[in-house]
Amino acid sequence: MKPVIVMQTDFSDTEISSAVCTMHGICQMIDPELRTFNNTHGIPPFDIYAAANALDYIVDYWPAGTIFVSVVDPGVGTARKACVAKLKNGQYVVTPDNGTLTCLYERVGIEQVREIDETRNRYEATRKCDIFHGRDLFAYCAARLASGLIDFEGVGPSYSVADIIRIQLIEPIEEAGVLSGMIQSASRHFGLVASNIPYQMGDKMGLAYGDMLEVWITCKGKEIYRDKVVYHKSFGYVSEGQPIVMVSEFLTMQIALNLRNFVLEYKIGHGPEWMIYLKPV
Known about the structure:
This protein is α+β, with helices and mostly antiparallel strands. 20% of the residues lie in helices and 32% in strands.
């Protein structure tokens, strides 16, 4: 069975758009047997960190050989590299090399990376267009790789994994009885604010369900939120509108409001500029 292609972009707030449809269509033109799926196309426009985090969220739940196409590309048409990275788990990511590979580089590991040879692996009919590499380069190259028309070496010349562009992440730490880390995701749909602090760090401190935590959130050093919050297993352990700290889908420490939206209410963002602190009280 041929490997599947999984796509994500910042093209639309909805799941699909005409632009995304053409990416699926390019894959079908190359090989009608290919199976293509959507991760999300609602990544905030130009948000490279969000793209990196979205990839990190899904790769553990797809088989080896899966080809991910990630298109959040504010530098489209410029000298930034277009690449295919082979992960140490046997998967591939087709993406601009602009920081999108950061989280996978740090957690999963990248075995090799190759720059896409546009003389071979670009859709010829749209050669004059330099602003839609999602369709004309990334989806096209991914389909050629998935169909077996090229192997990984056929993508283009290799370059050093150490040269991959990476975003500087903030590592979670425990210091003087306080857990701290960056906010790795802030979902505007349900308002979930997930840190990069593994729940095991809380276990090591002796945290148990029902304990109270002082929680504060900062952006660029400015305090945005502070309150005392219960730590428990799920939303229903607090009253409607009350905050709760729990274990996220990432298996990290997360804060939310029961039946309310923490992100919208407190205008919370994500990435290395956003920090969260948890202190048992």
